[in-house]
Amino acid sequence: MAMLSFFKSPVFRDSQLGEFVRSRGHWRGKLELGGSTVLFVLAGGRSEPDAQALQLARTVSPHFPAWRPIIAEALFEHYQPYAEALAAGEAPEPSTTLPRIGAPSEVWPHAVLVFVSVAPIDRALVVEFGFTTAWDEEHTLGARFQGGKLLELNGSVLPP
Known about the structure:
Helices cover 22% and strands 37% of the residues. The protein is an alpha+beta fold.
């Protein structure tokens, strides 16, 4: 049985972030954020997460309260065309009732955080928050931050 330990995924423990297991090319752990526990993915090599990714990952929880209204605005801007097209009869009826959202702060009952990742995109480390929403059932939306600023809300992402 000792020979099988060669195939076991390595484990990395961080005093602040907890335990991560190497799987499918990334380090995977859990993060409690906004009242729920979600998948937390970090870039890195075979032996441990990337040092810069780990440093940036440690800032996610403290910065999230400031980023939350920015994310809400982006999600609301994504929602509005769906609601307008449906109201104008230009879009097919969704399988479930489209929620009525009148302001960015009202998106939260209809958006669920499913993952957070810290990984490079175009050679720069980015924090990405992946959300499923009631108005876009087919996609996971990615709110991407770099240097503390929202880069974009990507309309279709997958957890790394």
